[in-house]
Amino acid sequence: MTYLLLFSSVVIGYALALILKVKEVKHISIFLAFSGAFLLSVTIFELLPEVYEIPSKEIGIYIIIGILLQIFLEFFSKGAEHGHVHSHTEKYSFPWLLFISLSIHALLEGFPIAEDNNLMIGVIVHKIPIALILSLFFIKANYSKTVTIVFLLLFALMTPLGNWVSNQELFTADQELKISAITIGIFLHVSTTILFESSKNHKFNLSKMTAVIIAMVLAYFL
Hints:
With 222 residues, the chain is mainly alpha-helical. Helices cover 73% and strands 0% of the residues. It has one domain (2-18, 31-221). It has 8 helices and no strands.
């Protein structure tokens, strides 16, 4: 069921892009702000206490590695993980750099998901608007339907695959802890970037602020 729900989040994003035919990404900025706040809150409330159950400066190193890894990946994805996808020219070939960078990000997302935390909900809430924005990007950039569907299908499989690998007990408890710390760094960078970018020119927006507060409260009481 976990694998199916994670896979379905991308399918839902693609379906919404086809149904809504949204032309401007700003129309879903409130949803993005909500997803960023929710993911950040779940990370702080649930994942951080897990990795810091036994305080260690080494864990902080791996969180920093996760942040740096995400910054590196964004050189190739151009910020697609937090809702920024730009296309200046028409392209028809498969966007391999975008795919590889997003796949690494999505694969690592699946590792810390477990029955005793609510990260799956956070990842799903995060992936739906990202999949929607990706779908709109492919449609507006005149990619073929085949390229779009293949890209999104493979992208949708990455997080379930990461979760499946983590469930195979291929890593020691210490290694899993380090991978979780790296993923925390990725989540911290992505979620805070979404929140910072959701408020352009540092102007106060009541609707977005309300969405952020609601997301944080929901994450706390889950």
